[in-house]
Amino acid sequence: MDYLNIALPKGRLGEKVYGLFAAAGYGCPAMLEPNRKLIFENEAAGVRYFWAKPSDVAIYVERGAADIGVAGKDILLEYEPDVYELMDLGLGRCRMCVAGFRDFRDDPARTLRVATKFPNITRAYYAARSRQIDVIHLNGSIELAPIVGLSDVILDIVETGKTLLENGLAPLETVSSISARLIANKARSKFVGHRIDELCGRIAPLLEAEESQ
Ligand code: PRP
User: Fold this and answer.
1) What CATH class is the domain 4-92+179-212?
2) pLDDT band, very low/low/confident/very high, at 1 (cuts 50, 70, 90)
3) Strands 180-184 and 68-72
4) CB 4 within 8 A of CB 46
5) Which pTM was predicted?
6) Measured distance CA(21)–CA(18) in Å, rounded
7) Which of 158, 164, 169, 175 to mutate to test the pocket of ligand 1 (most atoms within 8 A of CB)?
């Protein structure tokens, strides 16, 4: 049997996704053991899993090191990897927002300073509104930027809203809704397409059952 190589995002989202794949018959119990291994195989199920950094999953899939993978819509919007987006897994749901001080009022006479981990999404969002901006590209703890005067607003992921609230900030505009997507390498889809179709066919009813609850 052809092995299906699957890149999953390391962390809480990846563990949820693995739970879904296991329920669909693609389990590999050693995956959840507390160790630092990054690759796991289940010969009987014909699957090989990789734990990748969440923002790198699409790179493994785009370049064919993994046949399929799971990436957040935020990463797909930011990097636009050349992959097939097969399915919305409905996991890791959150929003991408512009956020700042609740009383922030944009002054169109001034360039808006926006701190973000997503410079491409940020440029596209404000270009569509013909708003001139200065993108400040940060790698994390984005909420700090407006508080210490580095930026006017941020464009970032909001899940529970707790990080914003606890730092005296609030969501100001919703940019898009985000969730985890199943993606596939384009060329590898020709060779292992039957395996990918089978996996999608087993996952879809599980997602429907989840939705109807
Ligand atoms: C993300 C995001 C927000 C936070 C939102 O950061 O960038 O900071 O989670 O979650 P909440 O609405 O539930 O509070 P992450 O934890 O990935 O860390 P980072 O700051 O290093 O990017």
Assistant:
1) alpha beta
2) low
3) antiparallel
4) yes
5) 0.94
6) 5
7) 158
